[in-house]
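Fig. S4 source data, part A: sequence.
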Amino acid sequence: MKGFDYSVEIKDSKTYEKLRPIGGSVINKLYKIEYVGVENIPSDGGFIIASNHMHALDPVFIGLGLKDRQLHFMGKKELFENPIAKSFLTKLNGFPIVRGGADSQALDYAIRVVKEGHILGIFPEGTRSKDYKPARAKSGVALIAKEAKADILPVSIYTSDDMKKHTKLTIRFGEVMPYESLGLGEDASKEQVRNCAHAVMDEIKKLWGMGHCE
């Protein structure tokens, strides 16, 4: 199978726009979703959305809350090994990354996504949570923010159930964490990068802790 071309021009997808209303209709039949804090979503410019990760459909849940903007997201390389899945995910702004290692091509692509004015979606935990609770963050989100000089918008996906059909979900968008507040300079140490990732995850946990709206 031919690999993903990280040198391609990064642009929003026409397929994404065509499928948005269809996807929204299907998802709303499967889950009861409430969006909170959508007014915090920047209307233009590149930034990072950082969220906890519970389900393979998390990029869809978040993307449907962005209304007139598109989400570009990274997924584990294994998802792109099937040619049909690869074609579908690529047309929805997805790109592969090798988990557990230094995937410089994917990281450089992610940085380009933000620098070129798009929204990058990333799950700082690196994998889905088995108990649906936010877990410990890895450094990737901070590394990308450092290199792209990017603001970060923390997001939480909350359920009091276990993602069965008709589960209630609350997608809560927090306040933007400006790049200048992240403690990341060009000479930031590994410890500062790790601290930034943990700070981002702390914000996500605070949002998650608010649970459902009354």
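Fig. S4 source data, part B ends here. The radius of gyration is 16 Å.
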